[in-house]
Structures are given as C-alpha cells and as structure tokens.
Write a sequence for this structure.
C-alpha cells in the first residue's frame, strides 16, 4: 500500500452547493487519473470527495475515521457511504481502544479528530482544501499546517535555500538562535545552535530523536500543559498504511508552562505563550517590545474563552 498514489481532499462540513459540487468534481478527476482519494467521512466536502471518487468505476477511496472498529461510524447519515467505501478502498481506524491519553478540557473525540487530520497530511503527498473561507479553519487547518511543514501541500514553497543563503551572510563569531512555533518546531533541528520551540508537536522517529538529543545540547521545548498540539501525532500508529507502523517522539529538553484559556486555539496561540513567559521578567519584556517594533506578538485574546463551543477567528 505504501506505493499507492494518495491525494487528500478536505474542507468544511457546512458549505455551499457549488463548493460541494467542485469537491466532487476534483475527486472524480483525481480518481480518473489513478489516485486513491483520502478524506475523513465527515459531512460536507469530505462526503463529496468520497462520492465523487465512487462515481469512477474501479476507483478507490479511503476514509480515515476517529471512531474505533467496535462502534458505528459517525456521522450516522454517512454510515451507508462508509460501507460502500469499505468495498472500494477502505475505512481506516487508527484508534483501536475506546480511550486515549487526553488533555484537561479536551474530550477524546476532539483529540482524535485532530490526530486524524495529521495522519491524512502524512499519508497524502498532495492535499486539496476545498473552501471559500478567507482563513482555513476546523480540522482542515491542522492537516494543512502539518502538511506544509513536511512539504506535502502543492502550494507549499520551501524556504530552505533562502534560509541558508542568509545564514552564510552571518559572522561565524555570532551566536545563532533559532525558534520554532507550533509545527514550525519541525524546522528547528540544526547542529551547534540554541534551539527554542513553542507548542511543538512530536517531530521525529525514535532514531532521529536519539541522534538529535546526542548532538544538539542547547535545545529547549517549551509547551503549555493544556495545549493539545504537543500531544500530536500520537506516539504510535499501527499498519496498514505502512508495514511496520509509524512512531513519533519529542526531542529534549522539556520546559512546561501552564495557562488554561478554555480554547484549543488560545491554549496554543504564540501570543499566549509569550504572555505567560513574559511574566518571568517583565522589565526585560517591556524593553524588548519597546526597542523592537512589531517583534512582540499580540496578547489581546489571552483571556479565558467563554463563548460558544466552536470558536472561529476571522
């Protein structure tokens, strides 16, 4: 299965009829080109991606779902679609137990939905997001962010060459600090540096993590204990997409902080990390922000969220 051509097609659950039709057309054309279309069996764009694929004789589509094999598929309205997918591709249940390690305030179902999108980004060299939103939101956001960092999205343009061009201009006598935030922590793994990451996910397989920890001694992984992103991806994902499974580890060294703002987004936002850490040395923080225009992130939203269950930022 590892040699199969996968393409992910995802998007919002609630959207317009023209956009749903566009998603179905994308899927159908991809299937005609021999791609296996991967999506999440959710309502809206996911449904159209699966349905569009199944319109092509012999085409295959895979649904990565957040439920275990022992419980009915969700949503209920897509169970019949799920059974058709089983016969023409497959339904992948990466979770085989009813409960997983969880963060306070985040239910198991929500955490598994996020992990599902990270898995989709890993498996698919190309990810198509069908959306008319100005800012990609919901689960699609996590698939895109993770996919961009590992070069999976076709619109992704690597900054590697530009980075090394700028590095060569620096004096060898100067100390170089590199910081990565969130999935940007994936790009902060260099030798002979001081590396600081904030809210980084698990970034390495066990062998790479071991070698990195042996070489990069000044590495600092700062994470909010209420932030879900550092719990992703899970430490292990079983087959079938790879014959031996997938394994993820964090690199050293751990520096936990704590702020609970009742929101997945706010618990992860770099401004709220900054707001918490700045309290360790308020005078230094004040001087830093004063002397470096636009350097310090906004902390306006760093208050406990008391609104609706689904938070959306425009």
């Amino acid at each position: 299965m590892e040699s199969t051509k996968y393409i992910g097609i995802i998007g919002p659950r609630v959207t317009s009829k023209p956009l749903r039709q566009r998603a179905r057309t994308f899927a159908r054309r991809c299937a005609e080109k021999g791609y296996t279309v991967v999506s999440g069996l959710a309502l809206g764009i996911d449904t159209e991606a699966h349905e569009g694929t199944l319109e092509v004789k012999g085409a295959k589509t895979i649904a990565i779902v957040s439920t275990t094999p022992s419980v009915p598929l969700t949503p209920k309205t897509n169970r019949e679609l799920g059974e058709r997918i089983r016969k023409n591709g497959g339904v992948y249940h990466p979770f085989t137990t009813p409960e997983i390690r969880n963060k306070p305030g985040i239910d198991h179902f929500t955490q598994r939905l996020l992990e599902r999108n990270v898995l989709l980004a890993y498996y698919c060299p190309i990810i198509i997001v069908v959306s008319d939103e100005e800012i990609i939101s919901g689960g699609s956001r996590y698939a895109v962010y993770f996919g961009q960092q590992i070069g999976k999205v076709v619109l992704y343009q690597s900054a590697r060459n530009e980075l090394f061009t700028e590095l060569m201009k620096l004096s060898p006598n100067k100390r170089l600090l590199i910081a990565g935030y969130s999935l940007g922590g994936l790009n902060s793994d260099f030798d002979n540096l001081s590396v600081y990451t904030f809210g980084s996910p698990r970034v390495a397989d066990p062998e790479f993590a071991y070698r990195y920890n042996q070489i990069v001694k000044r590495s600092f992984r700062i994470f909010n204990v209420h932030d879900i992103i550092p719990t992703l991806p899970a430490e292990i994902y079983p087959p079938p997409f790879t014959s031996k499974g997938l394994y993820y580890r964090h690199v050293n060294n751990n520096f936990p902080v704590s702020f609970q703002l009742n929101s997945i987004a706010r618990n992860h936002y770099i401004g709220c990390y900054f707001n918490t850490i700045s309290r360790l040395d308020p005078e230094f923080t004040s001087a830093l922000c004063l002397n470096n225009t636009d350097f310090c992130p906004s902390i306006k939203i760093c208050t406990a969220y008391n609104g609706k269950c689904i938070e959306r930022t425009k």
